[in-house]
Amino acid sequence: MTPLGRTELKATSQRSVILDIVRAGKGHLDADEIYQRARERLPRLSLSTVYRALAKFKETGLIEERHLDENHHHYEISHHDEHHHLICTGCGKVVEFKLPITEIIIEKVPQAAGFKINHSGELSLSGMCPDCQKKAT
Amino acid sequence: MTPLGRTELKATSQRSVILDIVRAGKGHLDADEIYQRARERLPRLSLSTVYRALAKFKETGLIEERHLDENHHHYEISHHDEHHHLICTGCGKVVEFKLPITEIIIEKVPQAAGFKINHSGELSLSGMCPDCQKKAT
DNA sequence: GTTGATGCAAATCCTTTGCAGGGCA
DNA sequence: TGCCCTGCAAAGGATTTGCATCAAC
Question: Between the ranges A5-19, A24-38, B69-83, B122-136, where is the mean pLDDT highest?
Fold first, then answer.
């Protein structure tokens, strides 16, 4: 079986399909969406396998868990640059952008002095995109 | 019964106790913690009342819901200035700080142009505080 | 052959809802 | 009085876990 990145995880077909889907999903899929898509290729797949695979991937740093909204998680392949999300409350569109928030904070926030902020610092803002603002009028 | 801020909500003893606790909790209590504390004063209180009161308070803008961690919500009295949280992964300490992230983004992120970012934009970072870094060595 | 991964079902956690009774305006 | 609020119990969605089986190393 093709190895999964450079991890020590046992490579199974389930895992490679799941990882594939997360990769193709451009980062904004939740567990259930991943499950639905994976099932088209592996009809006997179970949801718990999806959760367990995602947990392992997260543990080894292959993917990251995001909290775009309040009720469940979304997953994306780990990037190495710091990026964040802006979600339109109108149409649900997700805009990804880069900004070194961590640096900005270290620089401007005295209370953060000495804190070792980890890479997974995440910023999710919501707002209304130009299109939806027009529609709303 | 003492009115609850300047809202039109019906004032009940449950609600005033709950609001009191949220206020005293300095913003980092979840529903169950609020429930436990409120029960000391109102032994017959039910958890659903807590959830319903929090929902109402949120709706009227009296409090805000935060997503400091992955599994449940935290509540705090609405502030009028934009502030964010830095959570220590070692001891769980929460440091609040002020920073006009929204402005910074509008200014530096081209993709955000035209977006109307709403006030509730929130940033939660995690990291390790100086004390915990020492202990970890 | 071992060890870790899977599928299934049941369990758990957090939150919401239905309903009948009760309290504030 | 009328309407909103409450408590209780049951329902709901997301995620986790126990267990026997199975596949990767």
Answer: A24-38
pLDDT number for residue A33: 95
Helix axes B47-59, B13-24, angle to 10 degrees: 70
Between chains, do A118 and B111 touch, taking CB under 8 Å as contact? no
Measured distance CA(A114)–CA(A105) in Å, rounded: 12
**Per-residue pLDDT tens digits for A36-67:** 999 999 999 999 999 999 999 999 989 988 87
Give residue for tokens 């990882």.
Answer: A19
Interface probe with A: pick from B123, B129, B131, most Cβ of A within 10 Å: B123
Domain that holds residue B46: 6-77
User: In this structure, are A98 and A67 located in the same domain?
Assistant: no
Q: Which residues of B touch A (CB under 8 A)?
A: 65, 67, 70, 73, 86, 88-89, 95-97, 99, 101-102, 104-105, 108-109, 111-118, 120-130, 133
Report in angstroms the alpha-carbon separations of B135 from A86, A112, A118, B86. Answer: 36, 18, 17, 19
User: Which residues have a Cβ under 8 Å from the Cβ of A95 and sit 6 or more positions away?
Assistant: A85, A86, A87, A88, A129, B111, B112, B115
CB A66 within 8 A of CB A76: yes
Q: What is the largest CA-CA distance in chain A?
A: 55
Is residue A69 domain-shared with residue A104, that is, in the same domain? no
Within 10 A of B61 (CB to CB), how many other CB atoms are there?
A: 11
Cα–Cα distance measured from residue B76 to residue B27, given in angstroms and rounded to the nearest whole number: 4
A1, part of any domain: no
